[in-house]
Amino acid sequence: MLRSTAFDGLATLDLAKYLSYNRAMIGTKVKIGELRDHLSEYLSRAEQGETILVVNRDREVAVLSAVPRPRREQSLLGWMKGTARIQGDLLEPMLPSAAWFED
Question: How far is 54 from 35, CA to CA, in rounded Å?
């Protein structure tokens, strides 16, 4: 089970457990020196969705990935647009006027 703690509104995960559960999601492995020299490039790649594993002397030390963005709330107005069809004339009664008063 993943252990998480709140830090500035972001969840921090135990790195070893994160890596064991998400090994398939790691896209790039980078050494600390390479990361330091090309930080803006790696940050841009992480922002686009790539997950980057940072290593120090072949020891995994960090995972660089994008911060999850909150989903934008949709307005209730128009959320079913295009799902209904109007058939016939809305101004004409559905029943003939003689049937209105029949019991």
Answer: 8
Q: What is the pLDDT of residues 85-97, one digit of tens each?
A: 877 787 887 788 7
Q: Which 8-state DSSP code applies to residue 74?
A: P
Longest dimension (CA), the chain: 90
Looking up tokens 């290593």 gives: 55
Handedness of CA 38, 41, 47, 49 (dihedral sign): negative
Kindly state the average pLDDT of the residues 48-71: 88
Domains and CATH numbers, the chain: 26-68 (3.40.1620.10)
Cα-Cα end-to-end distance for the chain:
66
